[in-house]
Amino acid sequence: MKRVDVYWLYVGKARELTSLLDSVERAHAERTLKCFSVNTDYISQCQYILDNSLTPYALMLASSSLLKQVTEQSLPLQLRLDIRNYLINYLATRGPDLEPFVVGSLVQLLCRVTKFGWLDDDRFKEVINEAMNFLSQAPYHCAIGLKILNQLVSEMNQPNSGLPSMLQRKIAISFKDQSLFQVFQISLTSLHQLKNDVGSKLQELVLSLSLNVLSFDFMGTSFDESSDEIGMVQIPISWRPVIQDPSTLQIFFDYYAITQSHFSKEALECLLRLASIRRSFFINDATRLKFLSHLMTGTKEILQSGIGLADHDNYHAFCRLLGRFKVNYQLSELVNADGYTDWIRLVADFTLKSLHSWQWAGSSVYYLLGMWSRLVTSVRFLKTDSANLLDEYAPKIIEGFISSRFDSLQSEFSDELSEDPLDNVELLQDQLDFIPYLCRFQYETCGMYIMKIMEPILQLYMDGANLQCCADNIQLSLAEVKLAWIVHIVAAILKTKQISGFSGELQEVFDAELSARVWQLINVTDSGLHSQVKRLNHINSQSIQ
Questions:
Q1: Buried b vs exposed e over 460-483: b needs ≥16 C-beta within 10 Å?
Q2: Of 105, 339, 442, 523, which one is least surrounded by beta carbons within 10 A?
Q3: Is 80 exceeded by the pLDDT of residue 39?
């Protein structure tokens, strides 16, 4: 078949694929085009289509066919180099005029062929310098250059079905050692150059590039990218001068403050990863403390201004960032950092507001509660005379948590379609994990508060149990649910007595006081006087055990 005939066949079938709704006809079109992605003789035909077609979907299908060829076929080295060189020139000459999805497909193809040839020929490694040539040109070309670097980092960081895992790791290590730092430096330089180009696509691309670099799997541990949790970031020691430079942290705080909400989250995600750098990365305690102080100052300014936190993605990322402070840094370092007093006060206020905004805050607040839990359990190891102020704020956090749960119950009780949180065991456990440590840290204050709120509810419930005919069923049912929550909280406190690190006569006294009130409730439920005791019978028997 002549090349021009192949061209028109391909374009025609490409149009069919994008317009046909009938599955049989689509399947026929796909079978017709399959040869382009499995037969190496058709590689030149794909190039001809790229050179001559003006149909975006034909261009994308040609690019996709070449991607499958590169991934699944063992192509000769020279052919892969030819494809690589062709794509660089093609993107430089025609890239600005192409649809974004076509550019994305071609960039993916370029990065895939680069990855597969990375260890075969050093000419593949020139892609970074060639991407830099794009950055020095007009905005359209600059965007293509940033897309190439973004895709290259992503490509190197993820496995491909066409590569054995050992070879994949060798390529990733080689890329990390030889080129990743250069890409990070390019991203930082571009961030400074584009700082005044507020809200532009280029800003979004360069922030994404920085995040891709900082999210790289430096140790080859293959972490779960779908998870919200991240471990220690194992940035190489050779990056130390750039990471410790104050301008590196500051540029991300600046971008968070100036950019639009739809990608200001990227700046927070970069800060989250910088805050997660392993402790041994810093040359000494002084440089680590300086880095921490900068993080605290930046987050304090966000807390003071509230900028961007009305956006839920930003809010969630910011909670995660605050949660990392006690994961990576010791309490003594936090207390001795400049501005700790103001910072911990602002974090406490932010936590309380978040607790009472339970409908909006969702699960994000538990990053904050986890931070408070880790803070109070570290107090006994603290060897400094500096005030940590945790004894002042911890009881307020407990009060805020319990009162906000009661507020949520009032709302959920009036909404028949809402899910009862007590029926979701996993969510309930997440909510109660931090309670014992915060309560036992200031057990007298927290224990008195729990008893204070429990006694009138218990009395109302007991009165209703004795006067069923006159009882307000709605109020009684609400009291029952509140008591169920309190029983869960008391059970969590008692259950973790041995691992909380807190002991003594005062602890024993309040353990007994809280237990006595639960036993009092059990006597009511066991009496059988109340018509709606099924929930409490079940909860009491399990919790006390």
A1: bbbebbeeeeebeeeebbbbbbbb
A2: 523
A3: no
Exposure on the CB side of residue 426, measured as CA atoms within 13 A = 1
Nearest one of 43, 42, 45 to 53, comparing CA atoms = 45
Residues 105 and 127: their CA atoms lie apart, in Å, by 17
Tokens of 195: 């700082």
Structure tokens at 525: 């439920």
> Of all helices (H) and strands (E), which one includes residue 513?
helix 505-527
Q: What does 13-64 look like in DSSP terms, one character per residue?
A: HHHHHHH---HHHHHHHHHHHTHHHH-GGGHHHHHHHHHH---HHHHHHHHH
**Residues 191-217: pLDDT tens digits?**
999 998 877 899 999 999 999 999 999
Please give the structure tokens belonging to residue 167: 């070879």
How far is C-alpha 44 from the geometric centre of its chain's CA atoms?
A: 43
pTM above 0.85, yes or no: yes
- Please, what's the b/e burial string for 343-365 (b: 16 or more CB within 10 A of its CB; e: otherwise)? bbebbbebbbebbbeeeebeebb
Q: Is 277 helix (H, G, I), strand (E, B) or coil?
A: strand
H-helix or E-strand containing 329? none
Domain boundaries, the chain: 441-544
